[in-house]
Write a structure and sequence with these properties.
Elements (H helix, E strand, L loop, with lengths): L16 H15 L9 H4 L2 H13 L11 H7 L1 H13 L12 E3 L6 E3 L10 H15 L4
Antiparallel strand pairs: 1-2
Helix pairs in contact: 1-6, 3-5, 3-6
């Protein structure tokens, strides 16, 4: 009979620090559904969080953003170099996202046009990987 070790065992340290951060945020959101997370800025520019965001974008074959920079452009420039520069800009408060293009979509049955939903200016990738657990926990009790 073999013994299987798991990071879920109380007192053990998880091998993935980003996953541990996500789990801690998830637990905090579950414990207090009304809680607001105001101090995540320092987590977004952590090297491991930014690297995880890059890996996720790369695996998904990420499309160019508003700046028209492709994955090939980033690889040519240097992934580590780009992530380090991004971390520095975020840490020092110098990061300024480019303004998003406002897209108006027609509303069915009328001549009215409305803004396309979902155009947000957030730090690339890192923020999303942190928000996921809190978002999932807030939907957990609603059948989602």
């Amino acid at each position: 009979m073999s013994t299987v070790t798991s990071s879920a065992v109380v007192g053990s340290s998880p091998a993935d620090p980003v996953r541990a951060l996500q789990h801690a945020l998830y637990r905090a959101a579950k414990a207090d559904p009304g809680r607001r997370f105001h101090a995540l800025r320092d987590k977004v520019y952590r090297r491991d969080v930014l690297w995880r965001a890059w890996v996720t974008v790369y695996r998904n074959g990420g499309a160019p953003g508003i700046d028209k920079i492709t994955l090939a452009d980033v690889k040519q420039y240097g992934v580590a170099r780009m992530l380090e520069e991004l971390a520095t800009e975020l840490r020092e408060g110098l990061y300024r996202p480019l303004p998003t293009r406002r897209v108006l979509i027609p509303k069915r049955g009328t001549t009215e046009r409305r803004p396309k939903p979902g155009a947000h200016s957030t730090p690339p990738g890192g923020g999303a990987s942190l928000r996921r657990p809190a978002y999932l926990s807030s939907r957990a009790g609603r059948g989602a």
